[in-house]
Fold this sequence. Notes:
Shape: elongated
Number of domains: 1
Structural class: mainly alpha
Helix content: 55-70%
Amino acid sequence: MSAKPQPSIDAERAKKLAVELSGLLRQQLEALEDSAYILMDEEKVEAYEQRSKRIAELKAMLGHRSCF
């Protein structure tokens, strides 16, 4: 998936997006750690997938390129 260049965003907006991204990444890590011991139910899988989509959106807005 190729990220389109986004219009410039101001520093305050970038900071808010970065904070949101950090929180979502932390939640993803916790979910993966928990799933090593307990199988995720459908609700948790759906939440994980929604966070993954939002993470991709935030990374595109912030100009981050990676495999996530």
